[in-house]
Amino acid sequence: MTPESPSHLARALRRRDWLVSAWPWRALAYLVSTVPIAGVLAVGLLVIGAPLFAALNALLHDRPPGIPLMLFLAVDSLTVLALAPIMSFPVAVVERWRLGLVDGRPLPTSPWPGLAARYRSAAGWREVAYLFWLGGVTPVAYWVFLVVVLLDLGMITSPWLAGDSNQPVVIWQPIDTTGEAVPYAIVGVLLIPVLGYAVGLLAAAQAAVARWALASPVDAAALREVARSRTRLVGAYEAERRRIERDLHDGAQPRLTSLTLQLGLARLDVPEDSPAARPLAVAHEQARGLMVMLRQLVHGIRPQSLTDLGLAGAVRELADAATVAVTVRADLDGELPEIVQTTAYFVVSEALGNVVRHAGATSADVRLARTGGDLVVEVSDDGRGGADPTRGTGLTGLADRVAAVDGRLLLSSPPGGPTLVRVELPCRR
Q1: Helix locations, 61-161, DSSP H
Q2: Second label for 292, Cα 20 to 30 Å away, from 75, 145, 171, 277?
Q3: Which residues form the Histidine kinase/HSP90-like ATPase domain (predicted)?
Q4: Rounded to an integer, what distance in angstroms lies between the CA atom of residue 415 and that of residue 411?
Q5: What DSSP string runs through 280-305?
Q6: Quick one: pLDDT at residue 390?
Q7: Residue 385's CB: how many other CB atoms inside 10 A?
Q8: Closest CA to 402 of 224, 222, 234
């Protein structure tokens, strides 16, 4: 399979070269190989279906079903249900292998989990459901398709049968002469490509059901635990970040400020021609640079403006510092969770940074609003557009930061602009 070729049948059906590719033959092979499996299962289901139909027929005619029939139906049904989780396992193994004919995407294999697990697991009963679908629904669909194929074949061959003494019938219309049969033959030939697509649609539908039923089901309990674990980790990370910011702001920063001041005073007391003057000056400048760096680190952990001014004020401060004209519209009522404020601030900061660095914009607009239980942050610009998360880590990192608080990020950036970044953050406390 070439890199450009589709990986599964449903995608191959959208290609223009469907009829001249190998996919119709693969779909036909998938359908033909289904016939013996579905046939055996259909016969097995008739063991239940026949007495069930007899019982229903008796009820429709106001006759109570006989006790032997009801006992047979009950024992038969319970036996089939008891054996179905065991019988479905080998069928599922074969079906996973056959699915490769029309779907190259990997499907996890399911080893034998043990007898008890087959009755307890959701995966086992999904395979049982697929067993009944394969033996009950699939034969009906195949018979309908076979009738359509035979009708089309009858239309194509009708000119050769027109002179027959049995007077052939095409779509309930008796054919007396070859001239009457020719239009039907033409229509039958024109329907051959349609049948080619019908083969693909039937195989794609069956493959989709097989993939849904035979794939390992998602463990909802595990997903909930992962979500809770992520929430706990985000909360712990935010608390640790606040502690680090507090320690730096209240501990290291005042000491470094005091050290810088002492070095400055010492420079005043040391003559300029003293051998200690130059090393002291270098130490003083390094201390000042370190203090600026420490201030930036503290600001990066949690901006002081966010604490002092709130989210709207801190965003307006970002807008004032931008090199493009930024309009801020804030409609925030009520208190926001701290982690939501921090996330929203860094979203605006990163988005405005992208506007300045990459968009070539002359203006930008920031909107903050409470909508229901969410905080909605929108940053738009009039730049060139074409923002692509795959070309850099900025938008990807931003999406990860938003997802960490159960939010979502939406991006609209057609070539030529404008670009809109919309973030929705749940405000559950």
Answers
A1: 67-98, 115-120, 122-161
A2: 277
A3: 339-429
A4: 13
A5: HHHHHHHHHHHHHHHHHHHHHHS-HH
A6: 65
A7: 18
A8: 234
Q: Given strand 325-331, what is the order of strands in its sheet?
A: 325-331, 363-371, 374-381, 419-426, 408-412
3-state secondary structure of 46: helix
Instruction: Quote the radius of gyration of the chain (alpha carbons, Å).
Output: 36
Instruction: Report the first-to-last Cα separation within the chain, whole angstroms.
Output: 52
β-strand 374-381 against 363-371: which pairing, if any?
Answer: antiparallel
In our burial notation (b when 16+ CB lie closer than 10 A, e otherwise), range 91-107 reads bbbebbebbebbbeeeb
- Assess contact for 381 and 319: CB atoms under 8 A: no
Nearest to 212 by CA among 116, 83, 96: 96
243-245-249 Cα angle (round to 5): 120
- Which class would CATH give 309-426? alpha beta
Which residues are 407's β-sheet partners? none
42, with CB counted inside 10 A (0-12, 13-18, 19+), is middle
Other CB atoms closer than 10 Å to residue 85's CB: what's the count?
19
CB 134, CB 213: distance < 8 Å: no
Q: Which two tokens stand for residue 367?
A: 């909107």
Weakly modelled stretches of the chain, pLDDT under 50: 1-3
The pLDDT assigned to 56 comes to 66
Taken in order 137, 142, 143, 147, the sign of the CA dihedral is positive
Cα separation, 358 vs 385, whole angstroms: 9
pLDDT at 58: 64
Q: How far is CA 305 from the centre of its chain?
A: 38
Cα–Cα dist 147/171, whole Å = 11
In terms of DSSP H, where are the helices of 215-276?
Answer: 220-247, 253-269
193 upstream amide cis, omega within 30 of 0: no
Question: Locate tokens 């008890």: which residue?
Answer: 116
Give the domain ranges of the chain. 9-214, 220-301, 309-426
Say which residue the tokens 């209240």 belong to. 250
Residue holding tokens 């002092």?
A: 308
31 CB burial (10 A radius; 0-12, 13-18, 19+): buried
> With 0-12 CB in 10 A as exposed, 13-18 as middle and 19+ as buried, what is 318?
buried
pLDDT of residue 34: 92
pLDDT at 120: 79
> Among all chains, which residue has been given the structure tokens 């760096």?
293
pLDDT at residue 355, rounded to an integer: 85
